[in-house]
Design goal:
The complex is a heterodimer of chains A (252) and B (205). Helix content of chain A is 35%, strand content 14%. With 252 residues, chain A is an alpha+beta fold. Chain A folds into two domains: 111 residues, Roll (Ubiquitin-like (UB roll)); 129 residues, Alpha-helical ferredoxin (Fumarate Reductase Iron-sulfur Protein, Chain B, domain 2), CATH 1.10.1060.10. In chain A, the strands form two sheets. A five-stranded mixed beta sheet of chain A has the order 2-1-5-3-4. Chain A has a two-stranded antiparallel ribbon with strand order 6-7. In chain A, helix 3 packs antiparallel against helix 5. The radius of gyration of chain A is 20 Å and the shape is elongated. The termini of chain A are far apart. By secondary structure, chain B is mainly alpha-helical. Chain B has one domain: Fumarate reductase/succinate dehydrogenase, transmembrane subunit (3 helical TM bundles of succinate and fumarate reductases). Helix content of chain B is 74%, strand content 0%. Chain B has eight helices and no strands. The longest helix of chain B is centred in the N-terminal third of the chain and has 29 residues. Chain B is elongated and about 60 Å long. Chain B starts with a helix and ends in a 5-residue tail after the last helix. At the A-B interface, helix 7 and helix 8 of A face helix 3 and helix 7 of B.
Chain lengths: 252, 205
């Protein structure tokens, strides 16, 4: 049943990448428990605009959990207290009346804050560009039956491809490591025959770019897997390590 | 970290197994014989150098990673709910490792220094006798037990983590590796911890 909440919000406000940020406290009242977390921020922003204040900048797009844009670190956890959901899928019924909610941006040197809760995640794009592609012949696509694929491999590749690149793994990791993201992007290709052409160099190139971007190392705490809204498994990280070792041995 | 870690894990089996002979309650006869072999055999003595090198590499590598990883998040989170997504000991390997290093310095001073660098080790004053003397102090016993607890948690994460880092995570074998790791961590740390306790309460003679 719908209820209404009065909440205290502690939100990170930062003018731009160069200036230092700080927390601002806001009171919001009459928040419907059926609202999503982003809609709650919309309500706050409407008021801020009416009052002539600067609204809170935050990333959002599809608001149905598939685009990977929303990126709020809520009460010490990426995408808030629930598992397997993005911030847009987090409903206000997950909070109690009178609660204080702390909202921060993803914090990592590889994800510089652009404004308030918006961070620059183009480092992910550059990791994909470094090796997340396959070579195919031009012209018509060949008959799918020409490419027999083991069902388990197809399932695992699909599960890895579910990664929406939101960066919750980096945000959750104590080392700000991007190993879960990078391993998912490597796995979705490594498991399929189409991905074999670049297999010897892909892991090396993407890991090198990942290090270049300033992400940390993996210490296997498993926090990324637990916080990933798409349930990407750390088995992908082990696969990436295998791919990386074999690429290191076989590359010229 | 993984390769040196697994190497140190293999060493602990030998160390723990040999020391457990004190529970034969034969006045340390079997233990002293083993200690004599470990102290004189040229292959073992060479492995001792490799062991110190492995330990040093593990420490230097860990320290380098810790310093490097710290730089990756220049502005810290105000609120972190770490318990919601990971085990505390998996996030505290550096702290546990530092405690272990402090313990190791005390431990090496007690027994390695005594048996290798002094001339005090004789037929009349064996390594077993030295253990009896050292473990008469309750403070030393407490330090050793705390050291073993740190070791247990360090191994609980480290064992399975090493396999994951080396890419050995397979749905068929991973549960077995995790179980073996947990059993290994508990058995090794409990066996080691029982030694100073047994000496202190004169359960073995």
């Amino acid at each position: 049943m719908e209820g209404h909440l009065n909440l205290t919000l502690k939100i990170w406000r930062q003018k731009n990448t160069q200036t230092a940020g700080k927390f601002e406290t806001y009171q919001v009242s009459g928040i419907s428990t059926d609202m999503s977390f982003l809609e709650m921020i919309d309500v706050l922003n409407n008021r801020l605009i009416e009052e002539g204040d600067d609204p809170v900048a935050f990333d959002h797009d599809c608001r149905e959990g598939i685009c990977g844009m929303c990126s709020m670190y809520i009460n010490g956890r990426p995408h808030g207290p629930n598992r397997g959901v993005t911030t847009c899928q987090l409903h206000m019924r997950s909070f109690k009346d009178g609660e204080t909610i702390t909202v921060e941006p993803w914090r990592a040197s590889a994800f510089p804050v652009i404004k308030d809760l918006v961070v620059n995640r183009s480092a992910f794009d550059r990791i994909i560009a470094a090796g997340g592609f396959i070579s195919v012949n031009t012209g018509n696509a060949q008959d799918a039956n020409n490419l027999p694929i083991n069902k388990d491999n197809a399932d695992d590749a699909f599960a890895a491809a579910a990664c929406i690149g939101c960066g919750a793994c980096v945000a959750a990791c104590k080392n700000a490591s991007a190993m879960l993201f990078t391993s998912a992007k490597i796995s979705q290709l490594a498991l399929l025959p189409q991905g074999q052409i670049e297999a010897a160099t892909r892991a090396q190139a993407m890991v090198a770019q990942m290090d270049e971007e300033g992400f940390g190392a993996c210490s296997n705490t498993g926090a990324c897997e637990a916080e990933c809204p798409k349930g990407i498994s750390i088995e992908n990280i082990a696969r990436m390590n295998r791919e990386y070792f074999s690429a290191t041995f076989s590359s010229k | 970290m993984a390769t040196t870690g697994l190497f140190l894990i293999s060493f602990l089996i030998v160390h723990c197994g040999l020391n457990a002979t004190i529970f034969l309650n034969d006045g340390g006869a079997a233990f002293n014989e083993g200690a004599e072999f470990m102290g004189t055999n040229p292959i073992i003595r060479t492995m001792e150098i490799v062991l110190f090198a492995g330990l040093l590499l593990h420490i230097v590598d860990g320290l380098r990673l810790w310093l490097d990883n710290k730089k990756k998040r220049p502005v810290a989170y105000a609120v972190v709910d770490g318990a919601a997504n990971s085990k505390w000991y998996s996030r505290s390997m550096g702290l546990l490792g530092t405690l272990l290093l402090l313990f190791l310095i005390i431990h090496l001073k007690h027994f390695w220094y005594f048996s290798r660098l002094t001339n005090d080790l004789t037929e009349a004053h064996t390594l077993y006798n030295e253990m009896q003397i050292v473990f008469e102090s309750p403070i030393v016993v407490i330090i050793y037990v705390l050291g073993c607890i740190s070791l247990g948690y360090h191994l609980l994460h480290g064992f399975q983590s090493a396999f994951q880092s080396l890419g050995w995570n397979h749905p068929k074998y991973a549960p077995t590796i995790k179980s073996i790791g947990a059993i290994y961590a508990v058995v090794i740390s409990a066996t080691f911890a029982s030694m100073p306790i047994a000496f202190y309460f004169h359960l073995i003679h």
